[in-house]
Specification:
Helices cover 38% and strands 23% of the residues. It is α/β, with parallel strands linked by helices and 492 residues long. It has two domains: 284 residues, Aldehyde Dehydrogenase, Chain A, domain 1 (3-Layer(aba) Sandwich); 185 residues, Aldehyde Dehydrogenase, Chain A, domain 2 (3-Layer(aba) Sandwich), CATH 3.40.309.10. The structure holds nicotinamide-adenine-dinucleotide.
Length: 492
């Protein structure tokens, strides 16, 4: 390995791995370029790590575990109090870095950093979160206690769409609970989180406790298969999530694998159409649709359909597409040319399958940014739940409109979809909202809310093809996932 000093890490062209407290570039000269999706400008590159690099990172994490586990939980927690303060201090810098490598606009990037901070804050509460249970006299003169102990080395594998926040759904909880971690971030936009890792070092995280290796799917697979990795936290597309979950399970490891989504938004006739349209447009087109919580199909029940259809069309057509750094931009580019082509392929297929294209974002250009991966807001109506545009995850700025005669029929549409991440209802009826909550079979539910994003102290994750596992990200689930309960029964 070629090693660089910490101070050099951010400015060097190749963003190094971080193993045992050292910034190091693997000897293999294979690199993956990281570019600005608005300009096409190359921002840097990451190494393509190989099995030997994974071995070194896991070995460092394994070696660091015994001492880190013995470090009092209050001291472990203090690292996160300091990290929180440092991220606050660098909030603007991190948000701007996010805009550059991901393409979302500055407000969205600010929000992402804020959501990341909230997970660091929550993980800093580990002394209280990790407390166990005790009960005296479970038999005459016999007491019982359950203590939570850390498990060992965890692998964390994350996607491109929230590259700063999603790693913070996991590693702060794992580490604050006394485990050590090897993180494999998305190869498409790993630079902002790299800066967070530098701040974590500044906050006092000892060598080996958090390690970062860059690379593609092969690197992630090597981590999951590594015999010294005790558990896996994964977020990405459903196909990969399912494969990771199977591989981890076959090796006897605990795993939580969050996958893709196709989120429905049901509008009842008693909802206020202006409020609905503004929530729905933000939900569908925010972050250019590259959110696991993005609205995808709007189901208008009865006479709610026409007024909402008109307003969504007006709202979508008025969105300003451009570079996320520029004032007044509502929607940035999608992450890459390949992804734009994939989304455009869904649009073409939607037309062939008989959905009616009301607004076509293909061909959108932005003056001054000829190299950007632009795709404007796109709206279809008459989307069928049995065609790709109505059924599959598009992950781009594409709205599908559908009609239903009743709440029951709308719920039937939701139930037919293979995904189960999020869904929303817009209504003034408490009874209808309760029915929706009771019947939807979806994990993250919005009532008059377009993006139902659980905060750090609640579980984040879906159902069906959107989630493989049982314990979700964030909140109490996170503490349960990263600890094992050891039960002690004593008689003296
Ligand atoms: P992706 O599945 O392509 O990649 C995710 C991670 O897995 C990356 O680190 C990548 O390098 C790695 N990877 C890719 N192929 C792999 C393979 N065959 N084996 C092992 N690892 C592999 O996902 P993406 O395009 O980066 O992110 C978008 C997806 O993530 C969408 O489907 C989105 O819905 C999902 N997502 C879900 C949630 C959630 O909470 N459920 C949150 C954010 C993103």
């Amino acid at each position: 390995m070629v090693q660089t000093k910490p101070g050099q890490a951010a400015s060097s062209q190749v963003t190094p791995n971080f193993v045992n407290g050292e910034w190091s570039v693997p000897r293999s000269d294979a690199r993956l370029a990281v570019s600005d999706p608005a300009t096409g400008e190359t921002l840097g590159a990451v190494p393509v790590s190989e099995a030997a690099d994974m071995d070194a990172a896991v070995a460092a994490a394994k070696a660091a575990f015994p001492e880190w586990r013995r470090t009092p939980v209050v001291e472990r927690a203090r690292v996160f109090f300091r990290l929180k303060a440092l991220i606050d201090e660098h909030h603007d810098e991190l948000a701007r870095a996010l805009v550059r490598e991901h393409g979302k606009n500055l407000d969205e990037a600010w929000g992402e950093v804020q959501r990341g901070i909230e997970n660091v804050e929550h993980a800093a509460g580990m002394p209280a979160l990790m407390m166990g249970d005790t009960l005296e006299d479970v038999a005459r003169g016999v007491d019982c206690e359950a203590v939570r102990q850390p498990v060992g080395v965890f692998a964390v594998i994350t996607p491109y769409n929230f590259p700063m926040m999603v790693p913070l759904w996991f590693w702060p909880y794992a580490v604050a609970a006394g485990n050590t971690v090897v993180l494999k971030p998305s190869e498409q936009d790993p630079l902002t989180h790299h800066r967070v890792v530098e701040l974590a070092v500044q906050a006092g995280l000892p060598p080996g406790v958090l390690n970062v290796v860059h690379g593609r799917g092969e690197a992630a697979q090597a981590l999951v298969a590594h015999p010294d990795v005790a558990g896996v936290s994964f977020v990405g597309s459903s196909e990969v999530a399912a494969a990771i979950y199977r591989a981890a399970g076959a090796a006897g490891k605990r795993a939580q694998a969050l996958g893709g989504a196709k989120n429905h938004m049901i509008v009842l006739p008693d909802a206020d159409p202006d409020m609905v349209a503004s929530a729905v447009v933000e939900s569908i087109f925010g972050c250019a649709g590259q959110r696991c919580l993005a609205g995808s199909v709007v189901v208008g029940v009865g006479e709610s359909y026409e007024p909402v259809r008109e307003r969504i069309l007006d709202g979508a057509a008025s969105l300003k597409v451009g570079c996320g750094m520029d004032d007044g931009v509502d929607m940035g580019p999608v992450i890459s040319d390949a992804h734009r082509n994939r989304v455009a392929g869904f649009i073409a297929q939607g037309e062939r399958d008989g959905a009616r294209l009301l607004l076509d974002g293909r061909g959108t250009t932005v003056a001054g940014y000829p190299g950007g991966h632009w795709l404007g807001p796109t709206v279809f109506e008459n989307v069928s739940p049995d065609t790709p545009i109505g059924r599959d995850e598009v992950f781009g700025p594409v709205a599908g409109l559908a009609r239903a005669d009743s709440l029951e029929a709308a719920l039937e549409l939701v139930g037919r979809n293979p995904y189960g991440n999020a869904a929303s209802i817009f209504t003034q009826s408490g009874r209808a909202a309760r029915e929706f909550r009771y019947q939807a079979g979806i994990s993250m539910l919005g009532v008059n809310i377009g993006v139902a994003a659980p905060m750090a102290f609640f579980p984040f994750g879906g159902a069906r093809a959107s989630f493989y596992g049982d314990l979700k990200a964030q909140g109490k689930d996170s503490v349960a996932f990263y600890t094992d309960q050891r039960v002690v029964i004593s008689r003296w």
